[in-house]
Amino acid sequence: MTRLAAVVGAVLLVAPLSARPPDVAAGAIRAHVLFLADDALEGRSAGTRGYDLAARYVAAQLEALGLEPLGEDGGYLLPVPLRRAVLDEGGSKLAVVMGGTRREMALGADAVLLPNFRETAAKVS
Taking the CA of residue 44 as centre, how many other CA atoms within 13 Å lie in the half-sphere pointing to its CB? Predict the structure, then answer.
């Protein structure tokens, strides 16, 4: 479950409702960005430990601002279902046949194959 997108979305929805935006120093914004962009968060890919750490950090900042939690169980985080598709590079190949000549394509160099979220396998002729 991913939570960061839901938390950030909640901030964007709640922010315009404030009578007066909080005073935020440039150094504070820089500190938040440096933390969230740090390699320690392992890229923050959805569903990873780094993503969860980033979501918890943002939730803690929302709490520090005194915003009302609207997430599950009175918290700031909401579950977001994920789907994942992974290309089976070892079992995937692409060749172009023209005029009786077959040319194998090198994945990544000659062709890019993307996984399909709706199909477990795909064949093209």
Answer: 15
Q: Under the phi-then-psi rule, with left for phi > 0, alpha for psi from -120 to 50, and beta for the rest, what region is 38?
A: beta
Residue 29 and residue 56: Cα distance in Å, rounded? 17
What mean pLDDT comes out for the span 66-93?
A: 84
Tell me the per-residue pLDDT of 33-48, one tens digit each, with 9 for 90 and over. Answer: 999 999 998 888 888 8
pLDDT tens column, 86-103: 777 788 888 889 999 999
Amino acid identity for residue 102 in this structure? R
Question: How much is the pLDDT for 89?
Answer: 79
What is the DSSP code string of the chain? ---HHHHHHHHHHHGGG-SSPPP--HHHHHHHHHHHHSGGGGGG-TTSHHHHHHHHHHHHHHHHTTPPP-SGGGSS------------GGG--EEEEETTEEEEEPBTTTB-----SS-S-----
